[in-house]
Amino acid sequence: MKGTFPVGKFNNIETPFYYYDMELLQKTLDSIISEANKYGYKVHYAVKANANKRILQTICTSGIGADCVSGNEVAACVVAGFAGDKIVFAGVGKTDKEINLALDNNIFCFNVESRQEIEVIDQLAKAKNKVARIAIRVNPNVDAHTHAKITTGLSENKFGVNLEMLPDVVKYVLTLKNVELVGLHFHIGSQITEMSAFKELCGCINDLQDKLQKETGVVVKNINVGGGLGVNYENPNQSSVADFESYFQVFSQNLKLCEGQTLHCEPGRSVVAQCGNLITRVTYVKEGTVKKFVIADAGMTDLVRPAMYDSYHKIENISSDGQEECYDVVGPICESSDVFGKDRMLNKTKRGDILAIRSAGAYGEIMSSQYNLRTLPKAYFSDEL
Ligand code: LLP
What we know:
TIM Barrel; elongated; binds ligand LLP; 8-stranded parallel beta barrel; 23% strand; alpha/beta; 8-stranded mixed beta sheet; 2 domains; Lyase, Ornithine Decarboxylase, Chain A, domain 1
């Protein structure tokens, strides 16, 4: 699919860099908003997937909210234009400084993860004469059937309050004056492609709501089902926009919301993955005895997902029309895990060719590092080239 990239314009730009297709981002946002609106669901973009300023501004302009996991993300969202009441703030280890920043910006809600954290938020809110809205993150013990390093909803994970402990934590919150319980929060994992995992989550939330109502009489205003919807890394061209229709349908068909309750979700990857590509130039082609290596000028410092999670990203030589040949595509970093793909079929590749590593918009640029004292990759946008 060379056709979709302005290869001629890439020739004058120093590689590696991220290239964002802003039309695709907009199309994705339009789809998510129209599907969520069918049911009155509220969407908060998970900023951790990509906090590039232009991307954040575009998402902010679309009207959806933001899900942050650090004080710096909250600050970046405020700079990008998000109103405080559209921001939620999650994370197991919020520091006092971060909590104070969020309180100062009157965010919509803290997604809290422990009794001690609730106590601290109550004290800090009291000092500012404020009442902080909180949602308790519950660990639903649902298996997301995804990579172990991105599964979060099992009892053995560090996240959230265990199901059995929830009624007691709720009763404790009711004794506090400077926090208001406005929701329950769930997140079972990421890159989830089987809708049955979300269906299971719905069942778990239904049971939990019944139990909580019986034991405490509490019905919260908001149910936040987290993020996790996966994207098609194998065929980014066929499924450039994630299947938001099926995703929201699962909740509408399986989740029993109580009177006056609103559903919130926090997609990250499905919003930005497909619009981003890592563009890299081939420095050398090295012929071994059994393998041919394409050595790119991008490495695991620019896109760590393959090295860190064994993730698959489609790789294309967008500057060659030659017959396909088999290569291992590697980076220049002094680590044997610095491999983007093994045994990949690429158009015949030579020094100077340009490769696109696809579906890199989520957890790509934001997870880049300076290891080996490398320069951080820059970003370019389709509507600015
Ligand atoms: N909400 C919470 C509480 C989360 O922990 C996450 C992601 C999300 C929402 C957004 O999930 P998404 O829609 O993007 O799946 N670096 C890994 C992914 C880590 C995801 C962490 N939590 C990767 O590159 O695959």
